[in-house]
Amino acid sequence: MLHDIRRHCQEPVLFALAWIVVAAASMALRAYGEAAVLLWLPSGVAAAAFTVVPVKRWWILILTMLAAQIFLSLVFGSRWSDALSYSIIAIVQAIIAAGLGLRALGGQHRAPARFAAVLGIFGAAVTAALIGAALALPIRADQTLSEFFWWFSANVIGILVATPLILRARRLLQESDEADYDRILPTILAVLCLAVLGTAVLVAGTVALAPAVVTAAVFITFRFGHTSSALCVLAFGAMSTFLSTGGNSPAPGADLSVRDATLAVQSWMLLMMATTLPVAAMLMKREELQLQLIGRNAGMHENLMLLDLAEELAGIGRWRFDMVTGQQNWTPRMLELCGLSPDLAPDPGDVRDLLPDRARPLFSEITANREARETYSFDYQFRLAGNAEKILRISVLNEFDIEGRRVALFGVAMDVTDQVQREQALDLARGRAVKLAAEAQKLANTDPLTSLPNRRCTFARLKTMVDLAGQRSTPLTALMFDIDHFKTINDTYGHQTGDEVIVQVAELARRQARHGDVVGRIGGEEFVWLLPGVGGPAARRLAERLRGAVESGLEGSTLPNVTISIGLAQFQCGDTGDQLLARADAALYEAKEHGRNQVRRAA
């Protein structure tokens, strides 16, 4: 818990402390050094803080920044009301600058790689500073237009200078890129040279040298990257502020008042920013493209290495045919796969006469797919000189020119002879296993004597029918029947004849059954006939028809004549399968008690 609180508060507190340090230095320069503050760096620190800290922790940052700003304002003698007002304005300004800047960049951790993003960042700083200056008007109601412009410019420059420098420094600390560290010293030296040149222009008042400062800033930006543009403006502003200490003009060589000179230098700094930022954006775009190119080259090199390794390990061959020049490019492995000598690589010429059966199946596939725009694959089967069968799996890609004409073929091949043979053997084994499983399933559910569903299967079907009848409120009838005086038949004619009588009764019952009915043998001479969707008189008629058919027997049969007794029961709401059959069995017993060869219906 404490660890999470410390982790969430660490960055907001560090930014608040950084703001106090920078703001205290700027306020001390103005209050005690009587210097003209040309850029308000604390606004850039605050904007960077809201850019870096996740939005869900902004409330922590707002509280810490508010406390820091009120504290420092009170230290420098501001009233409570003014301290609170200025602190709120500064936070609102930072939130607007960070929010608009992130929107222009497209999210955190992104650099401005497009000119539109640069304009967006510049616009974000201008908008935030303008809103901040407007919000401060009620507190500084007596300020002049030049004071308003000074307030506005100082904040714009502060945001555009401090924010990217802080973000860049943070990225350097996180990434620890040695190449970036190596550029720090040359960048600082170049920026110091620009500061000296700018100071000379400000002191001498030579207007003709003014474009040289901007040109030098553009050159430094082009040479050392986008961060150096902010450093140039910062260095120029720092030298101007140094020149203004003691109440002096920041541009001693110019015949201007301190206020006018301050505004002129700020305008110069804004111009410098507006000139170098597009260059910085162009450089970042170039760096991005260079990184993409390096990444693609590395990926291509890696892919080539992987391709060579795959060919080596998987035995893949490559072939390309230029249909315009007639040139071919065969890898040794491709020639070997086709039964040719690898020494013929890379261009063996016309190989039709060298390939079995002139490779008619191969070239017919290529001809049939001459318009294909996607990669197509096929198996090429042939026999080698020793009559050994070989199967190549070939993938081919057609290459077309801008007019849509096929100009080249690129193909790869792999020997899949063993794989295909294994697959064929597996398919054969799978077919046999499925057939055996089906036969085993049939044996498990079928009575071996009559081929009717056995007891287990019949009862399983009965349960399904009872469930459906209960759910749908549809009729269901169960007929239970057995052969009258079957023991006498066995004793008189023998068990072989008894079995043949059972088979004949089963056949007669099967002929009477409708599609969807179930006729099963549940033991000895006992049978069950399940009639889904049938009830009342219809069930009785079917039962009588079955009884009559058995009594008449099969035409031409030499078996003794037999009769059956039938018990009929209809499904009632709440019945289980056992209950339904129990009532049918009771009706069957009643039929036997009343003389056999009849149908009885359960009560």
- Helix-strand pattern: HHHHHHHHHHHEEHHEEEHHEHHEEHEHE
Mean pLDDT: 80
Rg on CA atoms, Å: 48 Å
Which structural class do the helices and strands define? Answer: alpha+beta
What does the main sheet amount to? 5 strands, antiparallel
Shape estimate: elongated
Beta strand %: 5-15%
User: Distance N terminus to C terminus?
Assistant: 76 Å
The total count of strands amounts to 10
Helix content: 55-70%
Could you describe the 3D structure shown?
This protein is an alpha+beta fold. Helix content is 62%, strand content 12%. It is built from 19 helices and ten strands. A five-stranded antiparallel beta sheet has the order 2-1-5-4-3, sandwiched between helices. The protein has a five-stranded mixed beta sheet with strand order 7-8-6-9-10, sandwiched between helices. β3 and β4 form a beta hairpin. α4 runs antiparallel to α5. The longest helix has 57 residues.
How is the secondary structure organized here?
Layout: H1 2-31, H2 41-52, H3 58-75, H4 80-105, H5 115-135, H6 145-175, H7 178-182, H8 184-204, H9 210-224, H10 227-244, H11 258-314, E1 316-322, E2 328-330, H12 332-337, H13 360-368, E3 376-383, E4 389-400, E5 406-415, H14 417-445, H15 455-472, E6 476-483, H16 486-493, H17 495-512, E7 518-523, E8 526-532, H18 537-552, E9 564-570, H19 577-593, E10 599-601
Parallel strand pairs: 9-10
Antiparallel strand pairs: 1-2, 1-5, 3-4, 4-5, 6-8, 6-9, 7-8
